[in-house]
Specification:
With 121 residues, this protein is of the alpha+beta class. The protein has a domain of 84 residues: 2-Layer Sandwich (Ribosomal Protein S5, domain 2), CATH 3.30.230. It is built from three helices and four strands, in the order αβββααβ. A four-stranded mixed beta sheet has the order 1-2-4-3. The radius of gyration is 21 Å and the shape is globular. InterPro entries: Ribosomal_Su5_D2-typ_SF, Ribsml_uS5_D2-typ_fold_subgr, RNase_P, RNase_P_CS. Pfam families: Ribonuclease_P. Keywords: Endonuclease, Hydrolase, Nuclease, RNA-binding, tRNA processing.
């Protein structure tokens, strides 16, 4: 047997759906924090949200915001291929969504927000 210098966990019968002995159960009491479907701006509303909207430019982001009359904000994120590989584009989208989700004042403002990531080069 090969000794790699690391003690591996003793495994139960994983084929029968049992977990390793040293695996702890998931954290309890932590609310699931997700980007809900109701927080998403439908693709058909992207154009409406951009036309006549207030525009803020920050570095590589263009942020369009317009009142929607719903009493809650919705977010749309657009990251083009020129921004980078899929891994980078997805990371940017996750960061933008998390910033939106973690800011209750913005979520309650009743805005349609479109964030467009522009060329990073």
């Amino acid at each position: 047997m090969l000794d790699i210098g690391v003690a591996l966990p003793r495994m139960r019968n994983v084929a029968e759906g049992e977990a390793p002995l040293n695996v702890r159960p998931a954290l309890t009491g932590v609310a699931k924090q997700t980007f809900r479907r109701s927080d998403r701006l439908p693709e058909k509303d992207f154009v409406r949200a951009v036309r006549g909207a207030a525009l803020v430019r920050t570095g590589h982001l263009r942020i369009h915001a317009r009142q929607n009359g719903l009493g809650r904000s919705r977010l749309g994120v657009s990251v083009g291929r020129r921004f980078g590989k899929a891994v980078v584009r997805n990371a940017v989208k996750r960061l933008v969504r998390e910033a939106f989700r973690a800011t209750p004042e913005v979520r309650a403002a009743g805005l349609d927000i479109v964030v467009v990531a522009t060329d990073a080069r």
